[in-house]
Amino acid sequence: MTDMTMQEYIEQAEKDLLHTYNRFQIVLDKGEGVHLYDIEGKEYLDFVAGIAVFALGYGNKEYNDTLKNQIDKLLHTSNYYYNVPAIEAARAFKKFSGMDRVFFTNSGAEAIEGAIKTARKYAFLKDGKTDHEIIAMNHSFHGRTMGALSITGNPHYREAFEPGIGNIKFADYNDLESVKALVTDKTCAIILETVQGEGGLTPATEEFLKGIRKICDEKDILMILDEIQCGMGRCGYPFAFMKYGIKPDVLTSAKALGCGVPIGVFSMTEKVGSASLVAGDHGTTYGGNPFVCAAAAKVIEIMERDKIYENAAEMGEYLAQKLDEIKSEFSCIKERRGMGLMQGLVFDKPVKDIINTALDNGLILINAGNEIIRFVPPLVITRSDIDKMTDILRKAVASNE
Ligand SMILES: *Cc1c(COP(=O)(O)O)cnc(C)c1O
What we know:
Blueprint: H1 6-16, E1 28-32, E2 35-38, E3 43-46, H2 49-52, H3 61-73, H4 84-97, E4 101-105, H5 108-127, E5 133-137, H6 146-150, H7 155-158, E6 168-171, H8 176-180, E7 187-193, E8 195-196, E9 202-203, H9 206-219, E10 222-226, E11 250-253, E12 264-268, H10 270-273, H11 290-305, H12 308-329, E13 333-339, E14 342-347, H13 352-360, E15 363-364, E16 366-367, E17 372-375, H14 383-398
Parallel strand pairs: 3-15, 5-6, 5-7, 7-10, 10-11
Antiparallel strand pairs: 1-2, 2-3, 4-12, 8-9, 11-12, 13-14, 14-17, 16-17
The site of pyridoxal-5'-phosphate has 15 residues, from helix 5.
């Protein structure tokens, strides 16, 4: 098999894998630092990081050694027994996030499912009713499982799979009045991303986030922040909500939490943890196993010790400045927005061709919707990586004008 060409692999893949993605026409082989290599040895500067996952870059020795050691020791136990990596990862996550109780999952979508169940159970224990409502946001993205899909504010993703879980209402992001208009005595949770990812790299305004916190406090509604993409250092803080001086009741994380191994988490305050899910209410076979938890504990240790989020803040500022420069040079670019190393350039046309031209020239970029290029590089990038990226991007935009 090793002497197959890239094109042959792609043809084979298209016969065997269910076609749920329009994939870029490269077959990736290995990574080193902030670079990826395809099976023909071509090098790419990576500004996607596996969609905001590989925060530490590829081939971090300390991280890799931790995984290798854990493989030789113990991969899996089930959650009927304690394991040391899960105990340590839970303590590390609590310290990093400021939350009190954690449940480890296999993915982001599953973390969202857990958050929804937590909110419904919390409300059920208060009034014994089963008709509680959740307020979510238009243009949100929370994942592809049925519960997560039901609160995802993109009708195009949901339509063919209706009916969803029901009793979901959608408000407009950064429009507090639209949220207030939907609150009833049945509302059990308001869920949002602190910075919308797929929906267009939009940070919450301070007024919006604090306003939601206030509504939730007044009515004992749970404020759920989905930081699966924007958390874990990406926005210049351990978690993006920390910029706003508020705290959610329930917090979800995944993506960079494992830096490549499948792990997510839903976490909550002690108040919620002591009045919601109990033994028998929720479970998972793989979730929180020693392998993925050893990875997560190490990721958090490195992020805290090396202040990776501070680099994200500093490089995020530099990236924003460079993107603003490019924006001023091209009339097809309408806006630059984002927070830290989670940035977007909004065009007045589809960005597919620009991304493909960049790829030909050794730069990996991804879109968010049809008309936005998203920049979510590893958090360890340097100024010179950003300079190199900007050069390739500038040429790609120019050649597709
Ligand atoms: C990616 C993402 C999810 C879903 O995570 P998966 O691991 O793909 O299931 C949920 N919410 C946000 C904000 C995301 O970016």
